């Protein structure tokens, strides 16, 4: 492993509302998204079918339950108080303040004819287009290969989502280069981080190539999961089953440093905090390893890495509030 540019980083956990001396624990945290305007971190608990928001100032966590099925993805919407969320294989606009099913407005469905597929990841690009990827049927930790797809959804064609990449097995981390000329992408079972040339105007990708194989750095049993980018254009990748977050220089195609956490199921990452220099890390827990990993499912924060994030684009949907 390469030497860190800053080995004096600090790791902490977000506290439970009920007991401030104990960490808040979730079944399978995912999709952390920072809202700079409200100083709020949104994230989901996939299997509990919950959407959470952490008030950075008070430290309190609020929860909204969705009863339709797995909730894997959440995104801000430009100029709107509504949120974009995925439930099973569909995208909805959601009102946090509206109770029950009335809070959800169906926007688009994907993977028709594959009733057991699930939306697994999604990010907006600089044009406000939403990139959303699916995974195939899952049993335990095993997912049927080559049944998923990476799509794009935008407001003027939402009824006709476009296929960007097929097949994929577990569509995961998505990040865009600072100059928007590249998209970085993860199909988890490949155990690699890949790059494509990206035409942001047309929403098209080409020139697929590998940036990093995680197995080259000793993570033989881990799969890359969620991903974000920092202000230097470096990638930060959560390693599911690897208990680590990798800091990657994609230009040099090398790992800069690996941040080890006291859990194995590290799921996703995003930058946040008032100065965008705190890396939030969601994690999950498994009944079989619960005794050995009492902190599994916690929401971690890594500080003093020497890096910081950038504002991330939001989904563009001009009539979101009245839709």
TrEMBL record:
Pfam families in the record, alphabetically? SGL
The active site annotation covers 225
Free-text remark on how the cofactor is bound: Binds 1 divalent metal cation per subunit.
Q: Keywords in UniProt for this one?
A: Metal-binding, Zinc
Residues annotated as binding a divalent metal cation are 30, 172, 225
Q: Which GO terms describe its molecular function?
A: calcium ion binding; gluconolactonase activity
Q: Does the keyword Transmembrane apply?
A: no
Q: Which GO terms describe its biological process?
A: L-ascorbic acid biosynthetic process
Gene3D superfamilies (alphabetical): TolB, C-terminal domain
- Residues holding substrate: 120
Cofactor(s) needed, names only, are:
Zn(2+)
SMP-30/Gluconolactonase/LRE-like region domain residues? 29-284
Which PANTHER family does this UniProt record tie to the protein? REGUCALCIN
The record's family statement is: Belongs to the SMP-30/CGR1 family.
Q: What is this protein called?
A: Regucalcin
């Amino acid at each position: 492993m390469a030497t860190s540019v800053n080995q004096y980083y600090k790791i902490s956990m977000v506290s439970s509302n009920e007991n401030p001396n104990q960490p808040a624990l979730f079944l399978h945290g995912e999709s952390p998204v920072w809202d700079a305007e409200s100083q709020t971190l949104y994230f989901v608990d996939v299997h509990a079918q919950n959407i959470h928001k952490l008030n950075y100032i008070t430290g309190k966590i609020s929860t909204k339950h969705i009863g339709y099925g797995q909730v894997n993805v959440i995104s801000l919407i430009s100029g709107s108080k509504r949120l974009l969320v995925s439930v099973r294989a569909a995208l909805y606009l959601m009102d946090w303040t509206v109770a029950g099913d009335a809070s959800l407005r169906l926007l688009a469905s994907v993977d028709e004819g594959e009733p057991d597929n699930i939306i697994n990841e999604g990010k907006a690009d600089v044009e406000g287009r939403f990139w959303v990827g699916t995974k195939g049927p899952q049993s335990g930790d095993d997912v049927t290969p080559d049944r998923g797809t990476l799509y794009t959804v935008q407001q003027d064609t939402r009824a006709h989502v476009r296929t960007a990449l097929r097949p994929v097995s577990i569509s995961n981390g998505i990040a865009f280069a600072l100059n928007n000329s590249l998209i970085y992408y993860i199909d988890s079972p490949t155990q690699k981080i890949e790059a494509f040339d990206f035409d942001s105007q047309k929403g098209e990708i080409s020139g697929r190539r590998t940036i990093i194989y995680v197995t080259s750095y000793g993570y033989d049993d881990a799969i890359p999961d969620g991903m974000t980018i920092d202000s230097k254009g470096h990638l930060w990748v959560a390693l599911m089953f690897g208990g680590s977050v990798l800091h990657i220089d994609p230009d040099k195609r090398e790992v800069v440093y690996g941040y080890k956490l006291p859990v194995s199921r590290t799921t996703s990452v995003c930058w946040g905090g008032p100065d965008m220099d705190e890396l939030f890390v969601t994690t999950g827990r498994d009944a079989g390893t619960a005794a050995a990993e009492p902190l599994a499912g916690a929401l971690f924060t890594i500080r003093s890495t020497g890096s910081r994030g950038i504002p991330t684009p939001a989904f563009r949907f001009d009539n979101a509030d009245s839709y």
